[in-house]
Structures are given as structure tokens and as C-alpha cells.
Amino acid sequence: MIAAIFRKEYYKIRWPWLILLLFNLGLMGYIAIATRRLFILDHPEVVWYRVLHLGQIHCEAMMYAPLLSGILIACFQFLPEMWGERFRLSLHLPVSPGYVALSHLFVGLTAYTILACLDLALLSAVTARFFSREGVMVTLVTALPWTLAGAAAYLGGALTLLEPNYRLRAVNLMLAAGVAGLYLNNGMPGSYGPSIALLFLPLALMMLAILLPVLRFRYRRVG
Amino acid sequence: MKRLPLFCYTLLAILVTAVYLPMIYDKVFFKKIEKTHLFYSPVSQDFIFKEKLVGPVPEEAQGFAVDHHTGIAYKKADGTYVPRIDFEKHLPFIFYKNMEIWGLLPLELNGRAFDKAAIKADRKVMELKSRNIPDKAPVVKFWPLLESNPGQARLVFPEDRFRITDTAMVFINADTNTQDKALTEIYTRALKDKGFRFPARSVNGKFTVLKPFDEGVFLVDADYRVFHLKRVNGMPQVVDTHIPAALKTRHIKVSENKQKEFYGLLLTQDGKVNLLSYDNYGLIPVPIQGYDPDRMDLKLIFNSLYTTAVYSDNTIIRAVAMDNTFTPVRSYVHTMSRATPTTASKIHDFLFPFALKVGVRETDEFTRVSFVPGNWISLGGMALCAVVFFGISVLGRGRRPDAGRLALVALTGIYGLIAVSLVEPDH
Questions:
Q1: Percentage of residues in chain A with pLDDT exceeding 90?
Q2: Which residues of A touch B1 (CB under 8 A)?
Q3: What is the pLDDT of residues B343-393, one digit of tens each?
Q4: In terms of Cα–Cα distance, which of B81, B34, B13 is closest to B421?
Q5: Which of A34, A189, B141, B177 is the most buried (most CB within 10 A)?
Q6: Which own/partner contact pairs does A197-204 have at CB distance under 8 Å and 24+ positions apart?
Q7: Is B408:B385 a contact under the CB 8 Å cutoff?
Q8: Which residue of A has its CA nearest to B1?
Q9: Is the per-residue pLDDT at B199 higher than 70?
């Protein structure tokens, strides 16, 4: 049954996901060109000084891309489900509603994680082409919170879209924006280093909290 | 199955509101007040300061406080307020350009005459901000080693940077992004020949070309011995400074200055500050009591007669004035106006039993999650929230709230009240 849900979700989001993949690849291409241009316009040692010492972020264009990816994947996945309350059909399968919801989230999170990991891998490759390993490390520590913001956006999107009550939907949207905002503070590059592990906690809470609107949707009450 | 999501949702709501509600309140009701500027006046031989006043301006200061900017007061340590011009006249070594315009130069102090050139020759400032200590900031451990004899007026960045590994000083060329094996071998050998034991505990230098000359870097080795390394005509020049390893040097704030009297400030593991002298790397302890480098910023202001060490945390500023032999002559402690409780701060304490801050702090460059507890005023707010929740439950729903939810609201105040109210409609 769960495998069937995976298949359904795969067929539902594969084309929009491929478009997102192309968008992310295009963005990484742009970052590669922009980074190369930095080295054309100035001496490499001066670019190193600006990026590694003064805190210029050469991949700033990526900052909000994971956020957009997370929101769009949530919309691709759950807007059709909420259209005419189709999700109710899935929730009446002979499987616990919790498993059904978590299976949907697993597919969405996997789709998002592939994009985020691809972004980070390509960013590492671009950075390693021009900078030393210290540059790669600080770039990854800078970009990782942005990808966590994307995960928060996906989970927040699910939390909002699956909520049947409009008032609570607005509240959930604010909660989602609040959690995503935690990862987008403007500090020095690499400043999130000591807090990254702790900042996985809101994501874990969010994932389990999504079951609340799902149960409310299924049973129209909870408690 | 239903309890866990309910618990997670409630906790999430509490966490998010504990981050954003106090932050929004602060943005609306608080202004960022900079720290007090405290000096030792060689004229009155006492302390004098300039600060932004929080709350109403005292009557005796009103004529003076609005002299330059509203709410800024110039006050002597004896409690008297002075106009801005008098304040500057008390500090002729700092405001020497105005002294010259006002025809007050040369001035005579302690039996000595000082003209503009004499004042300029002796004045300098050294600063050690808590947030700038390298282990309190996301510093990239990959540094340039400037050429100390550039053969021209301007310093330039070399085309390589170095890192210190467990066994070597490794140079990476920026043009090729590959290791420069020759330089790596030459510098590693030079350090090892002088007894340097890898890896380095810290690399200390002023990594900029915007300075009058370059003094290289100070490396603290694995045994806490301090080595001075310079690149002279491309080749390493290494000196064992013989600074006692027992001091456990934590950081050296290098500050190249044309006076060539001190390399900079040396901070030890136990929080003591020393001036690092050009005279055979001798250390001169700075006599500051109660200084905590992890919470406080330190500034040393030098002039022809005195050196003043000014150090402060978020609320209290302290200063020690020293003579030319660094013997304390006077000290002063002042609670800054920025620490004055206001109506807004009391309401903040009442409303918010605690706050979660995600971001950089005044003493740290890392983005951290910090728990900021409330105070006894917060207990009132927590009690009020519990009463409101109880009242809503009894009057609105005709039944008492369950003990768990009531306890949650009592412990988390407004955050808990909001969180349980969000899930209440379904009960």
C-alpha cells in the first residue's frame, strides 16, 4: 500500500520536479559563471581576501532558491490533494492516516533533499575549482542553513495546505515563515557552524506536527 | 498517535513565538544605545564621559544635553554635567585639532608643553573587542603572509595563502589553487629548525594591506610557545619570542604602529592582558581588575602623559588610568545609561517569561541559539496568563482546563497561552 502511495506521488510531481531541477541546475551554472567572473575582474589573491577574510558571499544568488524549491514542491504535492478534498481518499486506505501522511512527506522530502544535495554538491565543485578547501568548507556551512530553510518551507507548506481550518491555515503559514526565517539570518559566512545541529530540532517538530492537521482532516477533531 | 503531533505542534508554536514576539517588541520599543565613551582627562585628572541618556534628561543636564544632539550628555566623574566644548577641552590629546582651531595649542600640562606634532607622536589606540577574538568568530583558518620588505611604499597581498596542518605550514597558490611545495618545504623547515611544534594553536596577525608596514604573524605552537614569523624578501625569518609557555597565550591582537613600541596586545588563557613590547618581546601586564575577555570589550587609549584602559560589558563600564610606567593612578566604574530600566523594558519583562534569540550576540560573531531568562517581574506575567487561560476555559467553555495545559501556560506565559489557544478549538 505504501509503495502504491510512493508511486502515486512520483507520477504526480515528477514533471514539476524536473522543471525545478532544471531551474536549480541553471542557477548553479549562473553561480559558476559569476564566480569565474570575480576572478577575471580581479587578482585571485584579492578575491580570496574578499571572500575568505572580508566575508563576501560569492554564491549569494542561491540564498532563497531552496526556499522557493521547498514551497513549490509542497504546492505541487498537496494543492492537488486538497482540491476537492481528494486527500480524504488516501486517508481512508486501510493504513494508519499517520503512515499515509508520513509516506507523502517522505516522497516530498526526498524530492527536495535530492535538489538540495545536488545544489550543495555543485556549489562545492564550483567553489573547489576556484578556492582552497577552507573556502569550500565555509561556503558549505554558509549554504547549509539556506537548504534547511527550504526544508522548513516544504514542511511549512505541507502544514499549511493540509490544514482544513482557514484560521489555523493562516497560523500555520506564520509558523512556517517563522521557522524558515531561523535559517536566513544575515551573519558572517559560516556563522551558523555551532548551531546547525540544534536547528534540526524545529524541522523534526514540524514534521510530526503535520500529523495534527492530517488527523483533523481525517477525523474532523483531535485530542 | 494524536498526543505526539499535538505535543510537537504546541512546542513548535512556543518556540517560534518565543523567538519572534520578543524580537518584534524590541524592534518596536527599543533603540540600540551605543556604549558610553569614557576617558581620563589629563586636564582635570579625573574621568569624564559622553553617553546617550536613556529616559528623561536630568534638569541640571538639560542645557548641555541638547548642546549637540538631543539626549547626549557630557559628564564628569564627580557628577557635574559640562557642555560639549568643555568636554573636548578636558581631552586635548583627543580633540587636538579643535584645540588648534581654538588657539589653545601649545598647551601646558604637568609642567610640559605639547604642540600638535608632540600630541600626534604619542597618541594611539589599541582595541580588543570580545567578538573579534578569533575563537569567537567564524574565522577562515587560511591566512596571507605579507612581504614585510615590499620594496615600495604600499603593501600588497602575496599570491598565496597558508594553512597550518598537523605537520607543516602549507602554502596554496591563488593563481593555480594548488600547493606551492617549495614554499611549504622552506617555511616548514624554518619553523621546525627553531623548535616549533606543529600544529599551531593560533595564528595571529593583522591580515590587511591597509597598515603602515607589516610585522608578519605570531604563531602559538602546540606547546604554547610563541614564534614570530615574517616573510622578508620572500624568505622566512623566524624568532622564538621566549614568551613563557605557562601563560598559555590565547590570542595576540597585532596592531602595527609607526611608533614601534608595542606589537600589540597578548591575551592569556586566564584572561590577563599584556602589551607585547618591541623590546625583546617583553610583556607589560595591563592592570585591569575584573576583565573578562569573553564578555567585555577593551580599549587602550595612549597619550603623552597617561594610558587609559577602558573595558565594558553590556551594562557596566570600567576604566583604569595609568602613568607612563603603566602604574595605575586612578580607576572608575560606571553603570551605563543604556542599562537603565524603562517602562518598555519592564513591560517586556512582564510579558515574556523568557526569550529565544537566534543570531549573533554583542560578544560573539557566531549565529547562536540562546535562551534569555526573564526576571521576577516575569512571574507576574506568567501568573496572569494562567489566570486568563483558566478564566477563558471556565467562562467560555464551562469547564476547568486540564492540569497539564494549565501548567504549560503557567510555565511558558504568553507563549503557552497562544499555543494552547491555537489547538483549543478542537477540544
A1: 76
A2: 96, 98, 211, 215
A3: 999 999 999 999 999 999 888 899 999 999 999 999 999 999 999 999 988
A4: B13
A5: A189
A6: A198/B369, A199/A145, A199/A148, A199/B369, A200/A148, A202/A152, A202/B12, A202/B15, A202/B16, A203/A148, A203/A151, A203/A152, A203/A155, A203/A179, A204/B8
A7: no
A8: A98
A9: yes
- CB contacts of B144 in chain A (<8 Å) are 45, 49
Query: Each residue of B284-301: pLDDT tens digit?
Result: 999 999 999 999 999 999
Question: According to the model, what pLDDT value does residue B350 have?
Answer: 96
The overall average pLDDT reported for chain B is 93
Which residues of chain B lie closer than 8 angstroms to A181, CB-CB?
Answer: 20
- Cell triple for B365: 560573531
Shortest Cα–Cα distance, A20 to chain B (Å): 29
Question: B-chain residues within 8 Å CB-CB of A209?
Answer: 5, 8-9, 12
Interface test with A, best of B11, B164, B177 (most A CBs within 10 A): B177
User: Taking CB atoms and an 8 Å limit, are B369 and A215 in contact across chains?
Assistant: no
The C-alpha cell of B394 is what? 471556565
pLDDT of B68 strictly over 60: no
Q: What is the pLDDT of residues B81-135, one digit of tens each?
A: 998 899 999 999 999 999 999 999 889 998 899 999 999 999 999 999 999 998 8
Cβ separation of A132 and B142 shorter than 8 Å?
yes
Report the gap between the CA of B43 and the closest CA in chain A (Å): 41
Does position B396 have pLDDT exceeding 90, yes or no? no
Is there a contact between B360 and A199 if contact means CB atoms under 8 Å apart? no
Beta bridge partners of A29: none
- Mean per-residue pLDDT for B317-344? 94
Give the mean pLDDT of B154-161: 95
- Distance of alpha carbon B187 from alpha carbon B231, whole angstroms: 9
Inter-chain CB pairs, A–B, below 8 Å:
139
Q: What's the grid cell of residue B381?
A: 506575567
When pLDDT is cut at 50, 70 and 90, the band that residue A223 belongs to is very low
Q: Do A205 and B12 touch (CB under 8 A)?
A: yes
- The radius of gyration of chain B's CA atoms, rounded to the nearest angstrom, is 28
B163/A contact by beta carbon, under 8 A: yes
Q: Does B138 touch chain A (CB under 8 A)?
A: yes
Q: Do A223 and B426 touch (CB under 8 A)?
A: yes
- Tell whether B66 lies on the interface with A, counting CB pairs under 8 A: no
Residues 6+ apart with CB under 8 A from A168: A213, B422, B425
- Please provide the DSSP assignment of A10-42 as one string: HHHHHHHHHHHHHHHHHHHHHHHHHHHHHHHHS
| Contacts for B174 with CB less than 8 Å, ≥ 6 apart | A43, A44, A45, A47, A48, B159, B160, B161
Q: How far is Cα B321 from Cα B332, in angstroms, rounded to an integer? A: 9
Beta carbons within 8 Å of A188's beta carbon, 6+ residues apart:
A55, B137, B138, B360, B365
**Cβ contacts (< 8 Å) between A192 and chain B: which residues?**
366-367
Report how far residue A46's alpha carbon sits from residue A35's, in angstroms, rounded to the nearest whole number: 13
Query: What's the pTM value of the predicted model, to 2 decimals?
Result: 0.92
